[in-house]
Prior knowledge:
Mean pLDDT: 95
Strand content: 15-25%
Distance between the termini: 20 Å
CATH topology of the largest domain: Alpha-D-Glucose-1,6-Bisphosphate, Chain A, domain 3
Amino acid sequence: MESNWKLKVEAWLTNPKLDPQLKTELEMMDEKNKEDAFYTDLQFGTGGMRGVVGVGTNRMNIYTIRRANVGFSQYLLNKYPNQAHRGVVIAYDNRHFSKEFALESAKVLATHGIKVYLFTSLRPTPELSFAVRYLKAIGGIVITASHNPPQYNGYKIYDHNGCQLVPELADEVIAYVEQCEDVFGIDVISEEEALAQGLLVYIDEAVDRAYLDQVKTIQLNPELDKSILRIVFSPLHGTSNVPVRTLLKECGYNNLFVVESQCVPDPNFSTVKSPNPEDGSAFELAIKLGKEKDADILIATDPDADRVGLAVKNSEGEYTLLTGNQTGALLIHYILTQKVAQGTLPKNGVVFNTIVTSDFGAHIARSFGLEVQSTLTGFKFIGDKAEEIRHLGKQFVFGYEESYGYLIADFVRDKDSIQSVLMCAEMATYYKHQGKSLLEVLNELYETYGYYYESLININLLGIEGLQKIDKILTDFRNNPPKTVNSLEVKVIEDYLVSKRYDANNISELTLPKSNVLKYILADGSWFVLRPSGTEPKLKIYVGVKGNSLTDSKTKNESIKQYILDRIDKIGG
């Protein structure tokens, strides 16, 4: 491997086509950084291709972008013969080089004779998914690294249904990508040529309007008096600024206050430690403004606007940040109760979650007689299932992940914070008319359905050594599975890499796609999952429990977490 990456470095350095800026960057790198930049090719994970911007085969740059698009072009031409005229829609966020990577993608596709619809400025990821369906395109691309740190960018690809490619389709693209060995031998036509040939079409207002009009249709009680609700909103420097503010104003939410400094599309995310609504620190400025304006709720979306975080004012006037599982449970209960009251709840409805999502929302959904289906982590699996059940005569009712991603109506086939913001605002308004805050409603749900409590541990493991450590941890848990955890027997083991479910003396097949994920279910229904992140260099550990009270649940959760961390510590690096 060592000589291989060194050969790649030399090949890039000596190639006359290497961009001068990237060449300078490479010349200034030390050996360790060179190795990390060239030891592998940037891979597709649960969220597409994502990596640090810079020089190298393991970095996001115009050459790795071109290579990915050569593969995607060949996949599209093979998958959709004689349909290149239907086009591919491309959107991008506010990150470093997003616009350049989007245009580069467009030029590669146009070079292969594929028509491209390109937004002229940043747009939310869910609008890209909508636009693919609205324009009847054969695919989509969005340039984004979602909520990753500023040095990252990424590339996500979509099918004709506006759904991210599921693994078996992504594998087909990867096979084509791997056939492209000479990244410097990829020739592309110019933007001017693409425009002149009708292979590049810029899109904007018409699609924006169609999308927002469609989002408005999700409202369940549009006639509510919204003047009683006070909202603070932050796009965290990302793509939701214009669509969310436009949507809420048009829907009558006039007491809307925005964190102005975070409305700037800043690729460095200067006002936050992390542009991630899962991180409580991202709400610092929103909390400050919320107290000034006496806001009922605070809402923040991530940079590409597919995730949303919600904070609610408590009885002491402070703000409590809800978890993704809590917001999901509230949304499910609100949507289902309203549909029951209005006589619109389908008997053949399905709610989707993932194998790392709390059982809380599923319990609520089943109490309304709905089917619940769990997928692997990655919203593409939910988007794919939404299409599958349509052909089975079933109806999509709601889909969500614990990581703050929700979908209310499936005219989008990805998580959609624009829809979610509108539904959260309506839900908060509805309950405020009843004299309740969302926290009070949440407590009522706990009392009714049980005290569910979940936590997530992120163990950051960078570079080659990090990948080796993750593999070592998972191998140890897989080969030496725990029999008991804190005196509780491990009743079920689900190994998604080998598609097996071990339950007492029974072994059954798991039907979900293969993935390097382990799930352990304990005698009292508590569970934990170990999963490498598909988009970041980290091991993610999920823990879920149900207790007799919130205090009981937190204590149980903490003890399981400690067991896992102690074991990982013993495994070592």
